[in-house]
Amino acid sequence: MTAQVEVHIQLKPGMLDPQGETLENALAAIGYQGVRGMRVGKWITFEIEADNPDTVEAQVDEMCSRLLANPIIERYEYQVTREAHT
Amino acid sequence: MSKVSIGVVRFPGTNCDQDVFDAVADIELARPVWLWHKETNLQDVKGVVLAGGFSYGDYLRAGAIARFSPIMEEVIRFASDGGPVLGICNGFQILTEAELLPGALMRNNRLTFVCRPQRLRVEARDTPFTRRYAHRQIVSFPVAHAEGSFAADASVIERLEDEGRVVFRYVDERGGNGPDANPNGSMNDIAGVINKVGNVLGLMPHPDRAMHEMVGSADGRGIFEGLVETAA
Amino acid sequence: MTITLRDPEVTADVVAAHGITTDEYEQICTLLGRDPNLTELGVFSLMWSEHCGYKHSRARLADLPSSGPRVLQGPGENAGAIDIGDGLAIVFKMESHNHPSAVEPYQGAATGVGGILRDVFTMGARPIALLNSLRFGELDDPHVRYLFRHVVAGIGDYGNCVGVPTVGGEVVFDNAYRGNPLVNAMCVGLLAQDDLTRGFASGPGNAVYVLGASTGRDGIHGASLLASAELGDDTAESRPTVQVGDPFTEKLLLEATLELIGSGVVIGIQDMGAAGLTSSSSEMATRAGTGIELDISLVPRREPAMSAYEVLLSESQERMLVVADPHRESELMTIADKWDLPCTRIGSVTDDGVWRVFEGHDEVCAIPVEALTEAVPKYVREVEPPAYLAPLHAWSPDPGWLDDIDPLTALTTLIAAPSLANKRWVFEQYDHHVRTATVIGPGADAALLAIKGTKRGLALTIDGNGRYVYCDPYRGGALAVAEAARNLTAVGATPLAITDCLNFGNPEKDDIYYQFVEALRGVGDACRALDTPVVSGNVSFYNQSSAGAVYPTPTIGMIGLLQDIEKRVPPGRAAAGDRLLLVGADGAHLGGSSLLKEVLGQVTGRPPAVDFEAERTSAKAIRALNDAGLIGSCRDIGDGGLAVAAAELMFGLGADLGVELETSDDSDLHGVLFGEDSARYLVTVTDQDLVKATQLLAELEVMHRTCGRVVASAAYDIVGVGLVDRGTLEDLWRNAIPNAMQLSESNR
To answer: Does the annotation mark C51 as catalytic?
Structure first.
């Protein structure tokens, strides 16, 4: 079977997000007031072949912590949708 | 004879502003003028240069935020009135974001910043900026960017090629199209393009860094001489 | 000792957890006349840490020569300053960011660059160049590759964005650095001497402002814990303190700071570096002999519910502390607004010598300023040479021991060792052209910048050899300075002054302390002999992992001047038929050499002694040859000896050229080719000029011999030994690092 995976990555809460801050200011400068707490992240999607559906989540979690995210500064969330893909 | 005023735009994060200012000042008959991003007055300049750097830190996409600066409305008006506008590196990126030039500059294919001397072939000399060069002259300008891979729909690329709007193309040390020619994965080895009317040029390599043999090349002078001559 | 609890949270355990000894705690109580509260304890723990207070090193650093006719500012300020004539000054400093880079290589390296830039522009100088010195484990380790890639990207992205060219540096790979990489960054700035600004909180009644980024919980305890504790395998625990750099804000801060200084509105200004607001405010008051009063409830914050402790000790980046006349506040605010930077008044200068902090109406700290700065304990002790040195020094090669080593094989191994190989993979990621003054960029012995508006050239280099220092701390320290001076001489410049970054293990251990003291003595003697005072620097201790301490690694950043930049010695100016001339004696010394390490896998023996007189004479000879217009190209002879210098010289020549290297008669072949004896250069002269050149060298009583020629066939030929095709050799040299970096990486 094939599982669909979606990973969302953001800087951890409290970490400075210079990009988010700059975009917030830029939006204000072109007239969008009241925007707060902007954080910029990454959205990654992929498919994975899985013999054993139970191990997929553990595998994805490991992929996130070892490569896709940098757990030292980023937090991640993922969603695994198991669907037979033909 | 009075000097020709050329505006050099400074956005927050522009860092080649002084280099461009010096390059313009090096051209006889030219007088560089600072244009601050918060202003809405081009001070009667006869040409405009958007210098390289990291406007707004290149956050989101290079050039995406600077494009909304107050000064850009005036630059767009100036360009649509036929005034010569040159965008170098980040300036090129801003011009594409502002839709004064087609295409987009994507992250380099090697995924890292690349800084090196770069050979280019002048593909079109019937532009205000390249009249000083010989047909298919090979010149050397440094490149220094992380997002310089020119990309556009196949139809746009085809049109640019057909209309002779690819002004500079990356070549290798021997002037050929070998594997070392292209520093960033640009489609068709495109280094610089001009708009349809022919008054807005954007290029990734830095002619402003090629003004004196002592720093490696003086080949960039031609662009500034052409700009000043056109603006005069 | 009885602890009277002014603050119930201050227990003996809490004191210990702050890294403060019982003795130190007693001193603190004496200085205060009472027990500290928790916030004050945190403040002391940082200010008295090695990182901020230099308690193990300060007394020894005082022995370094730091004065001279050109010195405008010596150690003790944000950076040192040197007079280069024409009313201009160069401001420069080097600093380490080793521990943050081990934890998070990209941000660690980036914020290291940010910090050193601020140290320079806070003096009123515009940064004109960056250099760096890096040490990693060997590239066969996937985690080392991860660290290397991200450190290089972090350095590049930060400096590139701010628009300061990275013009030179060095990278060395050795497993001694596997668990603890070294990331040292140097910044060089230029200014008119009249604009030189210092970190003085002068004039009671003047206002104190924070300019730049808002304050978050970044790096709390970073300075004391990261830089003063050994890195165990649990570095994950220190993660929440990682600081994130914002080079865009830095660029705005740079422009705003220089504009503020130019406007005359600034009385004193200082970067908020290690220990943030606490160290910047107390150091500024100490220098001026004043007191300072701050209300931290006024400090703009990025995060809710921050305690006084956190605000005072935060190491959020891109912030400056400014002292200005409150009557000129509107001028200050106009400039800050122009650059879209927040600027907030948070306190004032006082005359009572007390560092006083309020949170609204509540007083949270009241500490005599000098208790935080001048009263930092200074530890000095006498230690014996470590036991490991004697066997190394007793080493001597058996006769015929190298007979099995084919010189050409050794050369190809050396050239392809990542430490000696071409570093293009690294420096192409750094913008080295911005500001359009880079006349000689990365990859040469030294970088050379044009000083616009003058005829002068500024030469820059960074150098260090930890293996040498490990094998002989005194000689190693001296050799680092001598090699740096040779780098500058090789492009035609005269050395002026240095900054240093002293990277060592845990100084509380006798072996390490001995290495530190002796290396410093070597650096000091060499600086006195070569007339290059130490004007700024940084000490980084506790560079060790579970595998042990790194090699003791003092890195030397040196600046030099070329009165007429047209007289530079450019790389690669030679033609077929030109002669190779060895200036200095033939090599013989292989102790501690690259040959032993890279070819035989041994780190042993004693590195060569530095003959200061020979260094001075050979440098003088190179300048004399150059003044007479006799030098085509020049390389100093360092790692890998004459054989590697000749190869590097060849790689700089036109692609169709090669070299023919003649070894001298009746001498030891490997010593001549690979010996790393000091005070030597390899130069090319035209055939016609050979007689003039050798006559000049004879007049100066400098040893020399012709040692080969540039030839019109693309090969490297050791006469009588054999030859190797230039293309083969050059491919090995160019591709060693790119090939290694194609392998997979791991962030663990």
So the answer is: yes
Top-confidence range, C304-318, C390-404, C427-441: C427-441
- pTM for this entry: 0.94
Q: Nearest CA to B202 among B162, B137, B154, B152?
A: B152
pLDDT at C8: 64
Asked whether B88 and B206 are in contact (CB, 8 A), the reply is yes
- Interchain pair C246, A16: CB under 8 A: yes
Delimit the domains of chain A by residue range: 2-83
Largest CA distance in chain A: 52
* Phi, psi (deg, nearest 5) at residue B124: -140, 120
| C535 vs C252: CA distance, rounded Å | 28
User: What local confidence, expressed as pLDDT, does residue C666 receive?
Assistant: 62
pLDDT for the residue numbered C227: 42
pLDDT higher than threshold 60 for residue C235? no
HSE-CB of B74 using CA atoms within 13 angstroms:
21
Separation between Cα atoms, residue C736 and residue C723, nearest integer Å:
21
How large is the ipTM? 0.97
3-state SS class at C221: coil
Sheet of B190-194: strand order equals: B30-36, B4-10, B47-50, B85-88, B200-203, B190-194, B166-171, B114-122, B138-145
The CA–CA distances, whole Å, from C275 to A51, C55, C272 equal 52, 15, 7
What are the residues facing B87 on neighbouring strands?
B50, B202
Q: Which of B211-225, C15-29, C677-691, C710-724 has the lowest mean pLDDT?
A: C15-29
Task: Note whether C437 and B142 are within 8 A (CB).
Answer: no
Q: Give the helix, strand, coil percentages of chain B, each rounded to 5.
A: 30, 30, 45
pLDDT value at position C571?
80
Q: What is the three-class DSSP state of B217?
A: strand
Strand duo C354-359 + C291-295: pairing? parallel
Q: Give residue ranges of B with CB < 8 Å to any C CB.
A: 12-13, 15-16, 18-19, 22-23, 52-54, 56-59, 112-116, 142, 144, 146, 206, 208-209, 211-212, 214-216
The pLDDT score that the predictor gives to residue C159 is 98
Query: Percentage of chain C surpassing pLDDT 70?
Result: 96
SS (H, E, C) C100-138: HHHHCHHHHHHHHHHHHHHHHHCCCCEEEEEEEEEEECC
Give helix then strand counts, H and E, for chain A.
2, 3
- What is the pLDDT at residue B146? 96
Tell me, letter by letter, the H, E, C secondary structure of C6-35: CCCCCCHHHHHHCCCCHHHHHHHHHHHCCC
SS3 C358: strand
Pick the CATH number of A2-83 from 1.10.10.10, 3.30.160.270, 3.40.1160.10, 3.30.1280.10: 3.30.1280.10
C230 CB-near residues (< 8 Å, 6+ apart): C505, C506, C542, C544, C545
Delimit the domains of chain B by residue range. Answer: 4-231
Contacts of A30 in chain B (CB under 8 A): 68
Mean pLDDT over residues C587-592, rounded?
93
Task: Look at domain B4-231 and name its CATH class.
Answer: alpha beta
A23/B contact by beta carbon, under 8 A: yes
